[in-house]
Design a protein that fits this description.
Elements: H1 22-55, H2 62-104, H3 121-154
Helix pairs in contact: 1-2, 1-3, 2-3
């Protein structure tokens, strides 16, 4: 059994030698980007909750000690996580706008063929925000890792 074919169902692994139709490739892209967006939302919401719990901790608790030592870093976690969530929202708003523009300009009289406005800034901006939300989420996680490492190894 190879790493390309793990023994569980629902795998993303695809045989590189196998041919696929365009609709299958688009279905895979839709599935993967949806999972990325869901993970970003989940992780970012967790980072906001982490920051909130540290910042609102009662005195003389471990979380309060973290807030005293690492307060600005915890604020940075919250900021990055909120930016990730806002970027996610903006990406979907832009996607809706791209769909509206596409539907307003059919390529045939029967209104059965359409083309995405790939040259329009709104189309490109949705990809910018797709990547921005991932970068902000990753930055929030990195800051939490730094907080934990500093807390465990430097300040212990």
């Amino acid at each position: 059994m190879s790493l390309l074919h793990p023994p569980f169902a629902g795998t993303f692994a695809m045989d590189a030698k196998e041919e696929f139709e365009l609709k299958d490739v688009w279905a895979r892209k839709r599935e993967v980007t949806d999972k990325i967006s869901t993970q970003v939302r989940t992780i970012s919401a967790g980072m906001v909750l982490f920051a909130w719990s540290v910042m609102s901790a009662s005195a003389n608790t471990m979380l309060a000690k973290i807030a005293d030592r690492e307060g600005s870093w915890v604020s940075l976690v919250a900021l990055f996580a909120i930016f990730a969530l806002v970027s996610d929202y903006i990406q979907y708003v832009l996607g809706l706008r791209v769909t509206d523009i596409t539907l307003a300009h059919p390529k045939d009289a029967a209104k059965t063929k359409y083309e995405f406005p790939v040259e329009k800034p709104v189309y490109k901006a949705q990809y910018v925000f797709f990547w921005a939300k991932q970068i902000f989420c990753f930055a929030a996680v990195l800051v939490v890792i730094v907080i934990v490492l500093v807390g465990c190894f430097v300040l212990a």
